[in-house]
Amino acid sequence: MAIDLSIDGKPRWSLIDYSVTEDATPIDPSDMSGGIGQMTIGLPHEGGSARGLRNKVIELKDGSKGSTWGYISSTSGEYNEDVTITADSRLIALNAARTAAPFAGKLSAAFRYYLGLVSVTTDVLIDSAVVDADVVIPGWTDNVWDMMKRFAAAYQLEVTLVSNMVVLRPVRQRTAVSYRDSASSWSMDNSRLAQSVEIMYYQSENKVEGLAYPLGGWNSSVPIYQVDEAETVQMQIQLSVTGDSLGPGATLTSVQQPVPVDSVTQEYAGASVYSVIDKDGKPVSAEDWVAGGGFMSVTLDPVLEQLTVTLRGPAGINNAPFRIATQINEDDSRSSLRIVGTGVFYNKQKVSLATGLDIDKAPELVGVVVDSPFINTRDDAYRAGAWTLATYTGPNLKMQVASSGINRVGDTGNYRYPTIAEFNAENAGPISAFNTQWAGQDISAFDAVQFEKVSSKFENQAFGNIAGARVQSDDAWYRIRSATTTPAGISYDMELDTTVKDFNTVWYNKTIADFNAQWDATTLSEYNSAPLARN
Q1: In the chain, what are the domain boundaries?
Q2: pTM of the predicted model, to two decimals?
Q3: pLDDT (tens digit, 0 to 9) for every residue of the chain, 535 residues total?
């Protein structure tokens, strides 16, 4: 079995061993597990040269498992002993905090924009099977890798590194071959049971000069700001809805500066304006306010999702303090400040999904609150929350497997090229046309072109394709969440991943009575452990 190693493009002919770990991004939006991937390489001692390898690019090629890339993060060893190199995958760039602007456009463009925040702009592949829907997403400030896991879960996609390509693709595209397992074990965990889960969703809309203050329009709780003569004050206005709070919010890219006017109606929302009254409720004209040096400005902080309002009172006008308000009657005045901005406006809501467990089995009322800006509608919340609900409804069944290989049938240790039948299907023309195309080129050039057609397929490229692959075992489907690959084989952890489609495939020609007859007198937990079993 051929194993090649290069560091910064230079081949290294001696390699003792290697280990490559990879994780699949989660399907459950409440699950934030999953790392960026890492490889460990053992090399013979070569003097002190290994100490200078940090940050260099390393490429590992295995004839039966494909190729993978990384950046050397650490080296270690003892004098005159073997050296160990640890390299992070290219996805390490995403492990950084960034602020993302609100986004409105195609899903694919959103993904590329988020990667661009950490300068990942080349070798990005969005699978043709990804539904390139229109999305409207509020801005955020967070770790980019964490947010990409939320992004993938919300749209039932996965993010991975295949060879050196950052790939976005739908889940459940690959089936692993499991007939060469050498060991397996399972575990069931009851620790995450709860009576319900809550899923937040953002009813988001992209607006140009929408009303950012007061969000949702004027109401009786909107405060009235005031300032004394020749005084300067500042106020912060929070635009985001934090924690478990619900209601309107906004993430903006710009705001329109407010201008003074003589009066503002309660319903007005067309521009950034304000009107002023004195302490007796009498209006101060916009002309007098400006002439006396009265002033208001607004600055936007997209990171904190807040506005800072700077207000200065005029000089030479009696009857301070001045209030940014409109007098309705002798006893009632209302805020007159209106600020419009451009960005994504949302109405944050939630759905509560019941597990059906009572307090005796699940003393915790709410197992988790999922808060993801990528979940936009109530339907999105139910769809994404179904996987969260499954996590908190019954025991979590997981399996750990060791195998000599899962991507090949009859592994020979060599790459798989297209078959003659596949080649003939693509080249149905005359031999003369083939000869013209390949005149003057040798077999190695022909081989390279043919291999490029299948290089990323699971049978040739195990690295990056193992995590996320599905395995059928014990009348259930599982999804591989974490895998470690060595020259000797693969070990991996799986979690339950049986879908309604899987169930329908097994029971398509049977009736509800047939199903009830098989599962009568069994609990839902017992059924979930083998949902595809059929007599």
Answers
A1: 3-187+400-415+455-492, 208-346
A2: 0.86
A3: 578 888 888 887 678 889 999 999 999 999 999 999 999 998 887 655 667 788 889 999 887 788 898 999 998 887 777 888 899 999 999 999 999 999 999 999 999 999 999 999 999 999 999 999 999 999 999 999 999 999 999 999 999 998 888 999 999 988 887 766 777 787 878 778 899 999 999 999 999 999 999 999 999 899 999 999 999 999 999 999 988 899 999 999 999 999 999 999 999 999 999 999 999 999 999 999 999 999 999 999 998 899 999 999 999 888 999 999 999 888 889 999 999 999 999 999 999 999 888 898 888 999 999 999 999 999 999 999 999 998 898 877 787 888 767 765 444 444 454 555 555 555 566 666 656 665 666 655 555 554 455 545 555 688 888 899 898 888 888 999 999 998 888 888 989 888 889 888 888 888 888 888 888 877 666 777 778 877 6
Q: How buried is residue 488: exposed, middle or buried, by Cβ count under 10 Å (0-12/13-18/19+)?
A: exposed
Separation between Cα atoms, residue 240 and residue 225, nearest integer Å: 20
Phi, psi of 429 (to 5 degrees): -80, -175
The Cβ of residue 356 has, within 10 Å, a number of other Cβ atoms equal to 13
Cα 375 from chain centre: 11
